[in-house]
Structure formats: C-alpha cells, structure tokens
Amino acid sequence: MALAAAGFALASLPAALVVRKFGCRQSMLVAIIGFSLSLLLLSSGAYLPVAIVQVSLHILRLLAASFMALYMVASQPLLMAVTRPEERPYAFALLWALNPLGGLIGNLLGGLLPGFLAGLGGMTLQDPRPYGYSIALSVLVCIPLAVATRHLREGGMPPSTEKTADRRYLMPYATLVAIGALSFLRAGGESSARTFFNVYLDSVLLVSTANIGATMALANLLTIPAALVMPALALRFGKFPSLALSIVGVSGSLAFLAFSGSWVMAGFAFVAMCVLAAMFRVVWTLLVQESVEVEWRPLSAAIANLTAGAGFGLMAGGGGYLVQRVGYDKVFLTGASLVFLGALTLGVWRKISPPASTASVVLDDS
What pTM was estimated for this model as a whole? Predict the structure, then answer.
C-alpha cells in the first residue's frame, strides 16, 4: 500500500507536464493503455524466475500507480472542461460515488474469480496462477473505458501563450501551497485509520474477520450516497461550511476511534470517518480545479495527488513503527491532529486567497 502511494505521488508532477504537452484526453488514453499493460505484466508473476519475481512485482506496482496518477491528473481538468459550472458539483459527486461502487464490485469479483478459475483449471488456491488470471481478466474493464475516452472531446487545455503575460495567468503559488498542505494533512490523517483499522480490530479488540470485513464493506457502501448528497448540502449551507464541517467531522471521528474501546464504537467511528471523507472529497476536488485558472488545473490536480499520496504513504509506511512505540490509540490521535491542522489550513486559505477570475466555486458561502 505504501509502495503504490509512493508511485502515485512521485508520478503526479511529471503527469502534469504530460497533460500540458499532449492534452487531457490523449493523456487519459495513454494512462489507460499503460495501466492495462502493467496489470497484464503483473498477472504473469507466476511465470517469472523466483530470483526476480519480488522486485519485478514491486516495479510493476509502481508503474501501475504512476499511470493511475496520470489518469487522475488528466481526468479532473477534462471533467471541468466538458461540464457547465452548475453541473460540476453533480459530476464530481457522481465520480466519487462510482469510485467506491466500482471498488465494491471489484472486491467481490476478486474474491470469487480465483476460486472459480482454480476449479476450472484444476488448480489449488495455493497456486499463484488463479490470482494472476483474475488480474488479467480485470483488464477487460479498461477496453470500454478506452473506447469511451476516445470519443470524448478534448478540453481543459491551457490558454494561448499571449495570455501568459497577463498577471492573472502567473502561477498561483499561495493557492498551490494551500492545496498541497491540506491534501497532505488530510490524507496522512485518514491513512492512520484506513491502514491500521482492521489490524487494530484484529489484534487489540479481537474482532472476528467476518465482522471486520462487514464493517469495512458497510463503510465503503455508505460513501456512495454520502458523495451524492454533498452537492445538495453545499447548495443549502454553502460550500465552505460544508467543507469545514466535513473535515472537522473526519478529525472528530478519528479521535473517537482512538478512545472507542469496543469494536462497535470503533466500527461506528470508522464508518463515520469514511462517510465524512467522501463528502469532503466531492467539493474539495472541485475546489482544487476551480480555484485556479484553466492553465494551472493539471498542476493543481498534480499537487493535490502528490501531497495526498505522500501523506498517505508516510503514515502507511511509518505508522507501523509508531504503533509499536506508542500504540494504536496514539496513532489515531495523531491522524486526528493532522486532519484538524488541515481544517485550520482551509480556514486560513479562505481568509487570504483571492478567487480565480474564471472560478465558479471559491471559498465563500455562496
């Protein structure tokens, strides 16, 4: 998990350069093809020499994560370009609702396919080949995705070079720093629970595997309606209050998880964190795009992905050492503190950041 997050983060800034050079749609097609090839190579791990299999699998996971970063950096500006301002909150809500739905379906198929393929080919589940074949079959999903992307109109390209002399098109350093800081703190804080929640329930609270799986499945399932209701809440209460309440709620959920003491309370805290985080991401992703001029949208998406991947990877990689030294409760409290610092960053940004001239979503209550 930490390795994939590192690959995702490291590839984000180069991905922004690729998008600026070749455009959003072409970059997405390259990302889909590269990701598919990475999965196909990853699925052949059972046929690699034992001496190189582990290193090869690590490299391929990094490669797959890098192409995923390119897709994310390119897809967000393109979504902005092909939707009208009033449609964008609903478009991003649908994006973040379909993401966990796809993950849920993928997890179900990923659990069923190896056993089915093993029985079909006379293999056992101790054999790595059924798992490799399952990964290879998952590439089939990328075919309609590539076809649909091919038929999208290009959009999200930077303005003409004549405009770059205009002061409005200078790099928005303060905005990008705020985006990076908040993304790093929020992702690092969330990672404390997303990485260690199941281990905490298993090793400390002695919860059965079935109950752990059911709790995590419920959390993923509830993020779907949570994302879909966020545009209505933002319209009713304002964008900034909705963002602020959701990120403070994530921090409070992590603190509650640290003091829960029972698996029911811990499960409630984890589900609440996932739901509130899903609500936050809808408006936050939109804000990352609309708080800068069109020219800088690939870079703003890259900064958000880079710092979020770095925050998640650092907590996922270093959290294990913290757990051994201070325990799970202190790790979850650390996560809560990081997210709360992210909320403070959001508040400071609202006070000091001027809106981009093309933005339809800015840090006000309108």
Answer: 0.86
